[in-house]
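Progress against Task 2.4 (sequence-to-structure conversion) is shown through the following example record, which the project officer requested during the mid-term review.
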Amino acid sequence: MRSRCLCLVAIILLVACGPASNPPDVTLTVFAAASLTDAFNDLGGAFETDHSAVEVVFNFAGSNQLAQQIAQGAPVDVFASANQAQMTAAIDTGRITAGAQQVFARNRLVLIFPASNPANLATLNDLAVPGLKLVLAAAEVPVGQYSLDFLDKASADLTFGAGFKDSVLANVVSYEENVRAVYTKVSLGEADAGIVYTSDIMGEGSNAVGRLDIPDELNTIAAYPIAALNDALHAEAAQVFVDFVLSEAGQATLARNGFVPAVP
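C-alpha cells generated for the chain above:
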C-alpha cells in the first residue's frame, strides 16, 4: 500500500511540474558592444529556439573593454565590436584571424535630450550654450570617438564656427564607459543632452527622450564587425551563430532594433 502511495505522489509531481528539462549541451559566450544589447538579446532568443542544445550567454560592454578582456585571455567564442579599431585590437592578440571578421550592421549618431527638454534645445548649435550639461561616452569607446569626430566636422563648418568643439566640450559633465550609460543618464534627467546611436532610442526607450538628428555630412556611419575566435571552446556553434547574425532573419532583427543591415 505504501509503495502504491509513493508512486501516486510521483505521478502527481510529474504531472504538476512536467518532465525535467535537459540542460544545454553548449554554452556559447558572446562578447558584444553595449549598443547591441537589445538586438542581440533578441537574436540570442531566436538562435536558442532554433538550436535547443545551445545556450547563448552575452557579455555586453564598451568594445574597448571587451577587446582588453580578450587580450587578457577571457574565454569567449564570438566577438561583435562597434568599430573596426577594437576588432583590430582583438586580431592583434592572435585570437582572431585577420580577414575572418565581417561587417554585420551599421549605425549612426543622434543627439538626445530628456523628454521635458530642460535646456530648450532646438538646434545642434545649442550644444555650445554655456551651462548646458552634456554627457558623452569616453573617447576610448567607439561612440565617444565618433562624437568627437562630429564636433571636429562641425567646427570646420561655418554654420557652427571654429570654436564650436571647445565650447561644447566645456559643457561635458561626464564621460561614460559605454553608450548605454549615456542614454540612461539623459533619460533619467541627469543631463541635458547626450550623443548615442539611433538604435539606442528604439522601442519603449524612445518615449523617455527627444532627439535632434545629426546630418550625414557631420555624422559617422559606424560599421560593426563580428568574428568567431580561433580558440573558441565551441568553434562550430560560434560560426553557426555568426552565420545566423548575417542571415536574412538576423539582419531583419537588427533592422527592427534600429540598425542598418549590412548584408543585402
